[in-house]
Amino acid sequence: MLYLLLSVLFLISNPSDKLKVKDPWMRVSAKGQSSALFMKIENEGEVADTLYKVEGKVSEKIEIHETYQKDDMMAMREVSSIVINPKSTFELKPRHHHIMLIKLNQDLKKGDEHEFTLHFKKAGAIKIKAKVDEMKMQKPQHVH
User: Fold this and answer.
1) In this structure, are residues 24 and 38 in contact, taking their beta carbons and an 8 Å threshold?
2) Which domain covers residue 52, as residue numbers?
């Protein structure tokens, strides 16, 4: 009886229903080069979830990265995971956290679309499609 009740509760409160992936896109790049995957992950749930792995066929290797300040320069490094806090949105964007697509298997041309699987500790596997687009450059801030 307890097993049945737990099964019903799991179906009612499926963690993958609480995570929404919005606006996934990759920047244009050439075969053999690297690119990056960006998106917003909304956690509408009451508990944090963790993105720990991304899979796809577009490149030989896929890693979760963060950009950080090192002396007077920006640098990147691999991280093991990203925590998406409850009732919040985590944005993977240029010059911040992003998914590195290393050694592309093909050219990424504007308008192309590719599938990825995001792996979360609680929500499990979530499949997405990301479009290829030009890099969206942020305008420099002008301060007087």
Assistant:
1) yes
2) 15-129
**What pTM value is reported for the model?**
0.82
Measured from the Cβ of residue 42, the count of other Cβ atoms closer than 10 Å reads 16
For residue 7, is it within any domain? Answer: no
pLDDT in tens, the chain (144 residues): 544 444 444 444 455 578 999 999 999 999 999 999 999 999 999 999 999 999 999 999 999 999 988 888 989 999 999 999 999 999 999 999 999 999 999 999 999 999 999 999 999 999 999 999 998 665 444 444
Q: Which helix (H) or strand (E) holds 8?
A: helix 2-12
Q: Is 6 helix (H, G, I), strand (E, B) or coil?
A: helix
Domain count, the chain: 1
DSSP 97: S
